[in-house]
Amino acid sequence: MSSDFPTYAPSEEHELLRRTVRELAEAKIAPFAAEVDEESRFPQEALDALVAADLHAVHVPESYGGAGADALATVIVIEEVARACGSSSLIPAVNKLGTVPVLLAGGEELKKKYLAPVARGEAMFSYALSEADAGSDAAGMKTRAVRDGDTWVLNGAKMWITNAGVSEYYTVMAVTDPSAGARGISAFVVEKGDPGVSFGAKERKLGIKGSPTRQVVFEDTRIPADRIIGAEGTGFKTALATLDHTRITIAAQALGIAQGALDFALGYVKERRQFGKPIADFQGVQFMLADMAMRLEGARQLTYHAAIKSERAMSGEKIADLTFVSSACKALASDVAMDVTTDAVQLLGGYGYTREFPVERMMRDAKITQIYEGTNQIQRMVMARQLLK
What we know:
The protein is built from ten helices and ten strands. The chain is of the alpha+beta class.
């Protein structure tokens, strides 16, 4: 067997990026994480630091003024920011979520108009698919878009929209042909300042409190006809294709939150003494740590594997199992994150249950990764369907 095959691991450039993001996150994001959570405020310090370092939307291609980072690099950025602050990691993650539909299906003029400001850090881009009665059943949406000459008029409301009110741009899915079911859904770019756009109150959440989650409401919102993303009736297809790529970023967020909790727990058990010695010397604690690290590394490898497939797919290659691996890594990484953060709280004992230490925040932040961008029950349905094709 040849010994010159490439190592199944990130490149030196990827690892350099990891060190760069980790240093930035520890210096400029982590110090504000508890305050952002406590006050339920947007992490402006994180946005400023990420924009200054050109790490807020690294996936945007160079042709539109972006860094042109590959999908694995994007995963690493999100992972390392999430290690410090889950809320802050939604800045690069949601910028990708909002822009992937434009990258996949948008015309060249639309890409130039909306990707360049995101690349420059002048605007963020959110994704508006879910509604109050259309969550897992996204095709059951009611928001309508009606053509009127050279404009579209939108009416309806989207729910659970991450960074709503902060983002300048929104990818919005709306029904353009009610008789066609999922094939009657189209995708549009809507701007925050468009007439008739408003936002509901911020949701009061268990975790990721620094990232505002609000309704986005459209009341006779009139937008130019050229803001449609792709052909009329292709919106739902674009939405599903988008999630094949962006579920991987949620896995990355879950990995980072879990790694942050494990790292803190490791430091704690080395210092905490009971019965005359560090609790790290007890085999029961060691077994917990080993299981946490083992499962986390397994989820990381699957997530990186999925990211590489995502990158190949974005480059035009047909990847038959992308849907499966993206669902698999999202479900696995988020389940692992919930387990690892819960164990981290347990390892800290009573201290872990207090806000004096970050692991309780990490546990609360981890929970949402099992829910958004498709619940883990939905992910298992998706995986099963792929297997049974």
